[in-house]
Amino acid sequence: MLTLIKNGNVVTFDKVEKADILIENDVIKQIGKDINAKADKVIDASGKHVFAGFVDMHVHLREPGFESKETIQSGAYAGVKGGFTGIACMPNTNPVCDNKFVLRYIIDKAKEAGLAKVYPICSITKGEEGELLSDMLTLADNGAVAFSDDGKPVKTSQMMRLALEYSKAYDLPILCHCEDMALTNGGVVHEGYNANIWGLKGICRASEEVAVAREIIIAEELGAKVHICHVSSKGSVRIIRDAKKRGVKVTAETCPHYVSLTDDEIANFNTFAKVNPPLREEEDVKAIIEGLVDGTIDCLATDHAPHASWDKECEFDSAAFGISGLETAFAVNYTYLVKTGKIDLPKLSRLMTKNPCEVLKIKNNGIAVGEKADITVIGLDKEFTVDRNAFVSKGKNTPFDKKKLCGEVICTFVDGKICFGGKQ
Q: Is domain 54-360 annotated with CATH 1.10.287.3510?
């Protein structure tokens, strides 16, 4: 089976150049100009841009246990629709992914779906309860790519220290949800002007920043690696930047909503803008973008958190935290970061593909001869209006509904197979 992508602007991790790509079965066979192979299928990518398939290192697929919110199949489909060829799913399912039986269930269901590749993340502690470490080595041997109690912080500094000691010994990535629950104290939005205006309890920046500092201090003492999830505040960026300058082995991610939106979105009690950590202020958005530009923040992940309608269409305090982000991620990142001149396309490709794979230790050399054909074709100049009702994810909860964005996914290849789009 030969597939030929013609006349695309190929975006590698370093440059953009016009080229054809010939795919044989699941592998890139040739890259160059004017390839004239007799292909079974030809994709005309004239005027389009061709990226290495994006890898989202922070997704909630909900299955098992919360299939009304999302299933592995619907989440993997949302992934390929959004241009993602790989997604790493967090363990806060029911039961929690803290044993090889749940882990194998997720892996088997993902293979059955045959869409985006699914990389399971297992919990740091059993049941995400913060009391006992999960059997990390056994879980890694059975397919876990990383460990996180995301959705909850690891309860004590001693437990985090133990986790980082194991991670150092076995070279296992630890992904940290940074939140001091005593400082969060039941808050639902960023602590500031909008919280006061709308009479909602606020979450201070320190709730995140104290926890970021804790994880970095412990990692620094041990000489261990640590990854900070969903950075939302200017103080967190400063703490991470300073740590990197000292040589601490820390990496970090942020999300599309933190580079594009402020807590102004909560006006009129818009529960689609309720997310944890919360949307903050313009100065935080500016600091996070600066962190992406200078390398303080390594990755762009979605923190895709789909919910059923009844979880969001209710009183604000009772509404669930989270944004359904897979289907808008690239367009938001492109519209707010590239079109505004903050970063270029190769940098965006590194933030959405190369760097997440390096953190998770997933082999990914991008678009290169001999590599797996995980490829996304995008029309960058195609402006569209977000319609949450057109989402294939079960979660329609997005603050980007009715917003205009640029960068529409035309088709997505996973292992050489077109899993989304491709019609000419």
A: no
- Give the pTM: 0.97
3-state secondary structure of 237: helix
According to DSSP, residue 273 is labeled: G
- The DSSP letter of residue 272 is G
- Class of CATH domain 2-49+372-386+404-421: mainly beta
| Catalytic site positions | 303
Q: Which tens digit of pLDDT belongs to each residue from 102-111?
A: 999 999 999 9
Task: Say how many Å lie between the first and final Cα of the chain, rounded.
Answer: 19
The helix/strand count (H/E) of the chain reads as 13, 18
Residue 46, CA distances (Å) to 142, 178, 380, 381 in order: 43, 44, 12, 12
Residue 295's nearest CA partner among 251, 236, 342, 358 is: 251
Q: Give the pLDDT confidence of 51-89 residue by residue, as tens digits.
A: 999 999 999 999 999 999 999 999 999 999 999 999 999
Please check whether residue 334 is in contact with residue 292, taking contact to mean a CB–CB distance below 8 angstroms.
Answer: no
In the chain, where the domains are located: 2-49+372-386+404-421, 54-360
